[in-house]
Write a structure and sequence with these properties.
Blueprint (H helix, E strand, L loop, with lengths): L1 E5 L3 H13 L5 E5 L10 E4 L4 H14 L2 H12 L5 H14 L11 H23 L3 E2 L5 E5 L6 H11 L5 E5 L4 E5 L4 E5 L9 H7 L4 H15 L7 H7 L20
Parallel strand pairs: 1-2, 1-3, 5-6
Antiparallel strand pairs: 4-5, 6-7, 7-8
Helix pairs in contact: 1-2, 3-5, 4-5, 5-6
Protein name: TIGR03915 family putative DNA repair protein
Organism: Flavobacterium procerum
Length: 260
């Protein structure tokens, strides 16, 4: 058995796939950043991310998959589902060994698993596009905090770049401790680690624009006014807007008094 140790990135995983074929490695187990303690006697193969090797694997997949099928590999990886890197490797192995397109072969467990992971990630990215709420800081930066189930920032980056092209903004993933920052020209990945105290009322008064409280309250009032009590369907509402998102939604926190 061989432990493939890579940096946890998509490019790192692609490099690992290339080297598995390059060195003819068998009985593979993937590990991110460090070896697994449960496999004491396994051989270890450390992988250094190589963009050229990653690109060669991507080019091979592009030749054998549709555009959507190729995109599904990246989206499935971003799902962060347990052992998805190993599932994707078996999927890639199946793709590269077949003379026909295998995307619709749902009798294959790995094809089905990749498809499910793809839908899981894209659904989460669609929700983030709808549920992100920006707040304006005193230095004229629009800031949003999210905690998605998947690593969706790379999937929603272009959407917000086009939609808010005339505004500086930063979307911070609190679960993964990094953000996407847009400076009116381009986007960049920024590693951050915010103190939990930043969300307290004392700090928000120091950080956010003095008019932000007014607009937050205005949004809550609008949401309340369009809500028709007689047509309230809590079950359906939670289905479309799960409660795990509510703590970052302005309209779901009517008791906020952060800016007063």
């Amino acid at each position: 058995m061989t432990q493939i140790i890579y940096d946890g990135t998509y490019e790192g995983w692609l490099t690992a796939v290339f080297e598995i074929y390059e060195y003819k490695l068998n009985d593979i187990v993937f590990a991110k950043n460090k070896a697994l303690n449960t496999l004491l006697f396994a051989d270890i193969h450390p992988v250094t991310t190589d963009v050229l090797k990653a690109k060669r694997v991507e080019n091979g997949l592009k030749k054998r998959l549709s555009v959507l099928g190729f995109q599904s590999v990246f989206c499935a990886f971003q799902s962060e589902i347990d052992k998805i890197d190993e599932v994707l490797f078996r999927f890639v192995k199946y793709v590269l060994s077949s003379t026909v397109n295998v995307e619709q072969d749902l009798s294959n467990d790995d094809v089905l698993a990749v498809k499910k992971a793809f839908h899981f990630t894209t659904r989460e990215s669609h929700r983030m596009k709808a549920f992100i709420r920006f707040k304006l800081t005193k230095d004229n930066l629009y800031y949003a905090l999210i905690e998605p189930d998947c690593d969706v920032l790379p999937l929603i980056e272009q959407h917000f770049k086009k939609r808010y092209a005339d505004q500086r903004w930063l979307i911070y993933d609190a679960k993964r401790k990094y953000s996407i920052y847009y400076d009116l020209e381009d986007t960049a990945v920024v590693k951050l680690h915010f103190d939990s105290a930043v969300s307290s009322s004392t700090h928000t008064a120091e950080i956010f624009d003095e008019d932000e409280g007014f607009f937050q309250d205005l949004w809550r009032r609008y949401f309340s006014s369009v809500n028709i009590e007689s047509r309230k369907n809590t079950k359906l509402h939670v289905q479309h807007m799960p409660k795990r998102y509510w703590k970052h939604l302005t309209e779901k926190r009517p008791d906020l008094n952060d800016f007063k």
